[in-house]
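Per reviewer request, we include the raw input and output of the structure prediction for the construct analysed in the revised manuscript.
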Amino acid sequence: MCVQMCEVRRAVAEALWGMCAADAVSMPVHWYYNTRDIRRDFGGWIRGLTAPRDTHPSSILRLSSTAGSGRTAGSNATTPPVVGNVILHDKLKFWTDPRRSVHYHQGLPAGGNTLNALCALRVMRVLSGGAFGAADPEARAAVLSDYVEFMTRPGSHDDTYAESFHRSFFSDWQELRPTAPTEVLEFAERRSGRMLNSPRADGQLNAIGCLPMAIPFVLMSASANEEEAVGAAVEFVKLTHPHPALEPLVSLYARALHATLNGACLKQQAETALKSPALDAWDACRQFVQRAERFPGSSEERLKVHQSAVESLGLACYTKGALSSLFYMAYSFHNDVTEGILTNTNCGGENCNRGAALGALLGARAAYLGSVVPQEWKDGLVDAPERIAGVLRDLNRSASV
């Protein structure tokens, strides 16, 4: 039992490192939808931690609503802006920059993590240090209270962009501004119930960005039964991303991660997910897998096949397509965390949130294969080392996980 617990804890640790490394490696080319732009802007494919350029070849930051979800053109003109007033206090100038090409993560250093990954690390620390189970309502209350404090505190992070779910949450939050754990939870539950029952769901919330903050709920439930782990993740996502299409997709990912944390074969988990009715993408994926196997590993030709696969399966943020791409790469790189993370990055598109979720799977599996996330990446991360060290200290003092 002790040996098994140690193995699971190693898998949890490597999943955290994989999540953060994949996010940081992808950060400079996040939302690069034309992969040729990656080579042009960085003199070749990304091979490690790199700082972003100040400009982005296909930025739509200036079109994004500062008052809530989606773009400015579809926003409610009567809603007061949250960017610059409630969150991202010193970043509004980049959202309104007339150049129209500002990078979403301008100013972050090499090894910096995006806002969603930083939020995920905070979730993990709250859960690891709390006197509650990850599936308990008290856990969700504590996490949301910390989320509000972090997001509304000036200078709490250096990222420039906050995606729609953050803006939507704080657009609704700003009227009453609850901060106590029970009050924030009650607010989020009321809001979730209203939005899940609305005849017009916010399509911007049906996005792969729902996963990073949910991953810690699975990690902290690694030693619990599968249903408890899945339930913990699903119940939290309902509060941040209240969209009716998400429950089966979040459940699918949470089951795969929980199984991988407990030693299951990631290749088999990925195939099962791709064959599931929720994705139904196995036949398409198998064709790309067979094409890729014709070329040497790490070759330019094989990378082009993977890029074509991701472009076909789902390059953007929408959850079903992004999950299909994620599990395709989990299948293809089930035993190679380094190349899996790099390939995800160089496929472009929504590679940060997709990468964070993929990196957690690859890292967890690596722990059972005698492999790890590269040490130079761990050392080069800016925010993650101290925060992960704190989580591991918490876990070593507790009987959980």
